[in-house]
Amino acid sequence: MKYLALMACMSIALASLHGENTQMIPVSFDTLFPASSFQRVLDICMHVWGEIEQLAVSESGLLSDASLLSIDAAVGKLVYVQLCLDHMIADQTYPTDVQDLEYLERVIAALEDTYDELFNRFGEPERMICTKHVLHKVRKKLVQLNHIVSM
After folding, report:
1. What are the CA-CA distances from residue 101 to residues 42, 44, 119, 145 (Å)?
2. Is residue 86 part of a domain?
3. What is the pTM of this model?
4. For residue 150, how far is the Cα from the chain centroid?
């Protein structure tokens, strides 16, 4: 009798696992607590800063193809940061604390310094011009956000 009850429970469990009506609901920290646009911007900037810092302190005298690809990817991430800042302004979803924006400005300034160090050491004028252009636009968006939040 116990055997039949155990088999019935197992078959019900298997049927519920493989049934047509069951759906898996993905649960993760990110789905339960989504990051704000500002948090995404800050995380990306910190990540890019770390990547570029590693390249800047590299012992190698030349940048490898992988390093150049990392620089190009970092520029792409900064363009995404600019897009996020544009959306924050358009949707009026900016941080309410001026200190948060000031911190992000300091991170961007440190990122600019690290890029300067990297490019002064290794050259790459085309990438330097592109990077400076993107960072300048990000800085302008931050000034605009800072002005809005300060009002």
Report:
1. 9, 15, 27, 8
2. yes
3. 0.72
4. 25
